[in-house]
Amino acid sequence: MKKFNNYFGAFFAAALMLLLTGSFASYAIDAPNPPQNLTAELDSTGKEIAVKLSWERDTTGTQPNYFFIYMAPKDSDDPNDFSYIAKVQNQHNQHNFHFLVHHLDNGHYSFYVTAVLYHENQKLESSPSNIVKIEMVQRPYVHVKPAETLRGIMGLTFTFTVKAESNVDCPILFELVDGPDGMTIDQSLGLVTWIPLANGKFSFKVKAWLECDASVTGYGEFKIQVGNDDNHKPFVHIVSKPNERGMPGEPYIYEVKAESNINCPILFELLPEHPDGMEINSQTGVITWTPGSIGYYHVGVRVFLECQPDVYAKQVFTIRVGDDSNFAFIKITSKPNLHAKPNSEYEYEVEAESNIDCNIIYELLEGPDGMTMDSTGKVTWHTPANGTFPVAVKATLECRLDISFTQRFTIKVGEGDDKPFCALIQGPATFENGDSVKEGVVKAVKLDSNSKEHPLYVGQIKNGEFSVRVNEGTYILKFSGPHFKEEWYENASSMDSATRVPVVCGDTITLNVVLDKLPEPKHFTVTGKVVAESDSTGIYANVEFIPVEKMHGREGNEDSKNAFHTKTDGQGNYEISLPNTFSYIAHAIHMSDDRKYAGQYYDQVSDPLEADIIVLTGDLSGIDFYLKAIEEKNNGFSGVVVDDFGVGIRARVIAHLVSSNEHNKRFNKTVETDEQGNFTFSNMLVGKYVLLSIPYEKTLVPGYYKLNDFVVHKWRDATRIEVGDSIGASIVIKHNVRTGILGVAHVNGNITSGTLSIGKSGDETQSGEPVAGAFVYVLDENGDVSDYIFSDNSGNFELSELGVGTYTLVADKVGYLTYEQEVTTDYETKSNVSLDFSMTEQPTDVTDETINVNDAVIYPSPVESKATIKFNSSEGTGKLLLYGSNGMQLEVRSVQTVEGENQIELNMSNLPTGAYFVRIITHNRIITVPVRVVR
Q1: Using CA atoms, how far apart are residues 660 and 853, in angstroms rounded to an integer?
Q2: Which of 51, 265, 555, 856 is the most exposed place for a label (fewest CB within 10 A)?
Q3: Is 856 helix (H, G, I), strand (E, B) or coil?
C-alpha cells in the first residue's frame, strides 16, 4: 500500500481535481471487453438438434457478471437485425462458456454475444463479439421416454404405458421388439401387459415410429424387477400437499395422492392423531370433514401397499380452522436507534404490521422525562446529557384490544458509541494492476490509552473507495474482503508493523490503499454417494456444501444462499464442482416426502458443529453419506427464533437429548428456520431436550433456549423441552445483541477432552481427543459478549474481535463441564493470545445403555461404605468411572470383563453423603447407574 507524503498533499490533490472538473468526480468504471472466439455448431446429442454457442471470457479489464446472447433469424451482419434471446451468468469467473439454443426451425441464423456488468443502477454492456452464422436443418424424430427400474410381483398382472414424443404432428405407434414370454403391447396406446411367473430381473425393448413416416423410429429399453432385490426395494411416496386451511361449518376436502414403483393398489388410512368426525376413503385417499369450531387440528395419514402392507409412508400436517381474524397478530418490525448524542433531538418511527385489516394504536409505556409518542407511532425526545434510559412502546389492534406487541429497549446517551464521529478517513482502494476493489471492510483500531471507550470503528470498501468515520485519536487500519489478502495499512501483515494514523476532530484524511488481489479460484470436482446405512441402497437426496467461512460467526452473516447444491441420481451418486475459495462442510438431506431417513453431515454426524471440514486441493472422491432410517413418530414441537425486538430471524437450531428412557447412546437433530424464524422438529426420541440456537446474523449471540427469557450461554442453565408421543406446544427462542467491547486482538487455541469424547460415535476415546462444536465466547469487564466462535472438528478455535482489556473466556458444550479462564489482551505485547485447554465430560441425564438397562444392578442401595455393581457383558477390557452429582470425575480404573454376568466391588467409604454416577464402558456398550451414599 502507498500513502501521500503528507495530508496537505492529499488535500491539495483533491482541490486540484475540484478546479479541473468542477466536482469531486467518482471513479468511472469502463464497460467490459467483448467475449472472444465465438463459434457455433449443430449439436445432435439431444432429442432435437440445437445450436451450440461457445466463447471465451476476456480476462483483461472490467469483468462481467453476465453474457447476453443475441440472434437474427437469417444471415446478417447488421446489428439492427438481432434481438436479445438469453443471458448466461458468470458465476465463478470461468474462462470458457457454452450455451445451447433449442427449438429452432429449419433456416439460417446469426448470433453474437456481449459481456455485461450490472453496477449499482447501471448496465455496462460491451460491444458485440464476432458474428457467427449457421444453417439449421432439423430432422423429424421420435423419442421414447426412459423410466427407472419397474417393479412387478409374481402372479399379478404387470402394466406399464410406454410414452414417446415427436417434433412432427403425427400419431406414434408402438411395437414390442423383445421381451419375456407372454408380454404384449397395445400398438396405439403403448400399454404393456404381462403376468410374471417367476421372481428375478427382466427387460423388454420397444420400438416407436411415426404412422405417417415409418422410417422415423425411436427405441426404448426397460428393466423390470419381479420380487425384491437389495438395490430396488418397493416404495410408496405421498406426492400431494395438504389443504391446511378450513372454516367452521364448511366441508373440508383433501385428496391424498401417492405413487409407488410397483404395480400394486395403494390404500389409505388415518393415524390416531386426527380430529373427531374426519374420515378417509381407503381406496381413493379422499379426506372429508366438517370442522365445528375455530382452532388448530393435527392430522396424520398413512398410505401403504395392499400387497405389501409393511411398505408405507406417512404425512403429518396441521389444519387451521378460521379466517385471519381468528388468528390475528401484530408485531413491531422497526428497530430503534439505541445511541444518541447529548442535547440533541431523538426520533423513532415505530412501525408495526398485522395479518388483518385493522387500525393500529401506538402507546408509550415507559420512557424518560420529555419523551412523547403521537398517534402515528412517532417517538420524539430532546436528549439530556449522558445517561442510560429504558423505553417501552406498545402496538395494539384497535379492533382487537386483547392483541398487542410490546418492544423494550435502552437508549444510551453520550457514552462510547454515542459520541459523534468527528473525523473521516477515506481514499481509493485498488489492486496492484489498477483495478478497483469492489467490496470489503475497513476497521480502524484506536490505540490510545482510553481505547476501551470506543476501540473499533468499521467502514466499507465500495466500488473502489473506502471510508470510515472516527473520533480523535491514533489509529491503525485493517482491510479485509473476499477478493484480496487481509492486510494492515500500509503493506503490513500484522498490527505490530502497521502505520499509525493520527486523527484530530475535523480532519478528512485521504489514504491511497493498494491491496494484493487473490488469485482466480480453481474449481475441483467432488464426488460421493448417499446410501442407506442398513443395506447401502442408493437414496435420492439433496447434497449441499456450506462454506465454513460463512457460518457460525466466522465472517459476517450466514446465508443459505452461500451453499452449493447438487442432487443424487437413482443410485445415490452425486457430483459437484466447487471453487477452492472456501473450505466446506457437507450435508445430505433425504428428498422424499415420507422422510424415512435422517439428514446427515459428513462424516456421519447429525450436528453441523461436529462435521468434518473439507479443504479442496484437487478433485476429491469418497465424500459419502450413510443415512439412518427414522423411526416413524407422530411427535415433536415447533417454535420461532426472534431477535431482541421480537422480529423473526434466520437461525440453525440443534436439539440435544439430555434425558431419555429409550436407551440411546446419544441423539441430536438439526433444523433451519425459514425467513420468518419458524422451525419444526418431528420424529423425535421421547425424552428431554435442550435447544441450541445459532443466528445467521453475527451481531446476535447464540445460546440455549430459556423459557420467557433471552437465550442463556450454558447448557446446564437451559430450559428442558419434554417430548412425548404427540405434537408439543410452540416455543419462542429470543436472542440479544453482541454488545461487548470490540477490537482486533486475537485469542486462538485448541480444545481436547480431558477424559472422554462426546464425539461422533459416543464410544470411549483416549484423553486428548478434540472437542468439536464447543461454544467459545468471551465476556468483557461488564459481562457482555464481545466475540464468539464454535470449535471445529479438530478442536481449534479463533476469536478475532477483542479489544484491549481483561476478558473471561468461556467454553460450553452439552455433555461437558463449562470451562472458564481469564484472558488479558493489549495491542503491544498480547495482540495474539494462544490458549489450549481440556474440557471434562459431565454426564447429562441421558441413559447411555445400548441394551436393556435393567440387567445392571448396584447393591446395597443406598450405600454406606462398599457396594457391588452387577451387569452383563462380553469378554474384554473396559473402564469404570465414578462421577459426583456436579459432574466431577472422582475415580477412573480399568476393569476386566467376562462373557455373561460380571460383578465389580466399589469402595465408597471415603465419600460424603450424596448422589453419584457409576459409568462402565466396554467395547460394545456404555452403562450408567446412579447410586446414593448415606452415612
Answers
A1: 12
A2: 265
A3: coil
- 228 against 162, higher pLDDT: 162
CA distance 722 to 208: 60
- Read off the pLDDT of residues 402-432 as tens digits, 9 standing for 90 and up: 888 888 888 888 754 445 578 899 999 998 8
> Strand 876-884 vs strand 866-873: parallel, antiparallel, or unpaired?
unpaired
The type of residue at 218 is: G
Topology annotation, domain 36-136: Immunoglobulin-like (2.60.40)
**C-beta of residue 589 within 8 angstroms of C-beta of residue 672:** no
CATH of domain 849-933: 2.60.40.2550
Nearby residues of 367 by Cβ (< 8 Å), 6 or more positions away? 379, 381, 389, 390, 391, 392
In angstroms, the Cα distances linking 139 to 102, 103, 167, 168, 215 are 13, 12, 9, 10, 12
Residues 452/741, Cβ–Cβ less than 8 Å: yes
What is the distance between the alpha carbons of residues 828 and 804, in angstroms, rounded to a whole number? 10
Minimal CA–CA distance to 858: which of 927, 768, 808?
927
What's residue 1's pLDDT? Answer: 43
Most confident option among 12-21, 309-318, 920-929: 309-318
- 93-102 per-residue burial string, b: 16 or more CB within 10 A, e: under 16: eeeebebebe
| Cα distance between residue 755 and residue 889, in whole Å | 9
Burial of 863 (0-12, 13-18, 19+ CB in 10 A): buried
Domain ranges of the chain: 36-136, 142-226, 236-325, 328-417, 424-515, 528-627, 636-734, 742-839, 849-933
CA nearest neighbour of 889 among 721, 754, 717: 754
Contact 66, 87 (CB under 8 A): yes
- Residues sharing a CB contact under 8 Å with residue 214, sequence separation 6 or more, in sequence order: none
Answer whether residue 371 shows pLDDT above 90: yes
What is the rounded CA–CA span in Å between residue 883 and residue 888?
A: 5
User: How is 128-140 classified by DSSP, letter by letter?
Assistant: P---EEEEE----
CA angle 443, 446, 451 (to 5 degrees): 130
Domain spanning 142-226: which superfamily?
Immunoglobulins (2.60.40.10)
Q: How confident is the model at residue 229 (pLDDT cuts 50, 70, 90)?
A: low
* Alpha-carbon span 353 to 357, nearest angstrom: 10
Lowest-pLDDT range of 49-58, 678-687, 692-701, 723-732: 723-732
The pair phi, psi for residue 851, each rounded to 5°, is -130, -175
* Through-space distance between the first and last CA atoms of the chain, rounded to whole angstroms: 74
- Contact between 563 and 545 (Cβ < 8 Å): yes
- Classify strands 378-382 and 372-373 as parallel, antiparallel or unpaired: antiparallel
pTM for the whole structure: 0.49
pLDDT for res 204: 95
